[in-house]
Amino acid sequence: INAEYMGDRKFAHALVAGIERNPLKVTKKMSSKRIQKRTSLKPFVKYVNYNHLLPTRYMVQAEIDLKSVVSEDKMSNPETKKAMKKEVRKYLQDRYRNPSGKEAKERAHAAFFFKKLRF
């Protein structure tokens, strides 16, 4: 999060990582190869203007923490950005395929994170 104007970005902005293409529905009948393919996702990492952020009532607490993976240093170079997106993809797929959370409320918030937003 950067509340100040910086270099090439003349607006207050945040570095955001998220899901561009969500995982698809899986049933019991599907083979393990098909399940692996349908549970894959495509991440994005980009700068977003504060005015374009949309708050929701859901909050994913300590389950998904990408601060160690995503940094502004890696955004400057295309090769490091690509490697960073691969790390984000691996981390999010692992969290989706192996959900954790003791309370039902935490699991519901994490499930919301992996669904497509419907407006």
Give a written overview of the molecule.
The protein is of the alpha+beta class. The chain has helices at 32-38, 72-75, 78-97, 104-113, and strands at 13-21, 42-49. The protein has a two-stranded antiparallel ribbon. The protein contains four helices and two strands, in the order βαβααα. It is 34% helix and 14% strand. The model has no long low-confidence stretch (mean pLDDT 82).
Question: Topology, pairings included?
Answer:
Blueprint: E1 13-21, H1 32-38, E2 42-49, H2 72-75, H3 78-97, H4 104-113
Antiparallel strand pairs: 1-2
Key terms:
two-stranded antiparallel ribbon; 2 strands; 119 residues; alpha+beta
Strand content: 5-15%
Structural class: alpha+beta
Question: What gap, in angstroms, lies between the N and C termini?
Answer: 26 Å
Q: Mean pLDDT, as a whole number? A: 82
Task: Give the strand tally.
Answer: 2
The biggest beta sheet reads:
2 strands, antiparallel
Low-confidence stretches: none
Estimated helix fraction: 25-40%
CA radius of gyration is 16 Å
Give the CA-based shape: globular
Elements, N to C (H/E): EHEHHH
DSSP helix count? 4
**Spatial order of strands in the largest sheet:** 1-2
In brief, what are we looking at here?
This protein is of the alpha+beta class and 119 residues long. It has helices at 32-38, 72-75, 78-97, 104-113, and strands spanning 13-21, 42-49.
